[in-house]
Amino acid sequence: MFKLDGIEKMSEKQKLNYLLLMVEGQLSSEKDTLANLSNVSALINILIDKLNWAGFYLIKDNELVLGPFQGLPACNRIKLSSGVCGNAVTTRKIQLVPNVHEFPGHIACDNASNSELVIPIIKDNIVYGVLDLDSPEIDRFTQLEAEYMEKLVEKLNKYIDWNEVTRI
């Protein structure tokens, strides 16, 4: 059982550290990949303020396919060459986009989204997908959050066999 008492009093850094602690606990106690990704997206959604979407896109048959998430229904498939998520895959770099409406080729799965943070999931030099966070606020995401989401992906890589949920 998760206890989230007192999170409203935590600083941004305290919440991010708590998130990593909760993720480690989840991943170390459960072996099912889909259960873990589902709970990780829920933890992100609870502990990161001002989000309207948090979840995963996983590479299957050379495109990004919707994985576990929290938020409104989203695009089912994204071409690897398209949008912020596709750009994170092809460049293998974190995408911290202050205003998605200024991003060339942005895909609007939810018209309420105004900023985005996307972390490529790379393990053993293979890109398996992305962790995607959206916010209705312009310039919502911080460099600190980008660093912590990268640490979160490192924790995922420690426990998850991505071949179970992807087809590369």
From TrEMBL:
Gene3D superfamilies: 3.30.450.40
Domain of life: Bacteria
GAF domain span: 51-154
One GO CC term on file: cytosol
Molecular-function annotations in GO: L-methionine-(R)-S-oxide reductase activity
Family named by the database record: Belongs to the free Met sulfoxide reductase family.
Protein name: GAF domain-containing protein
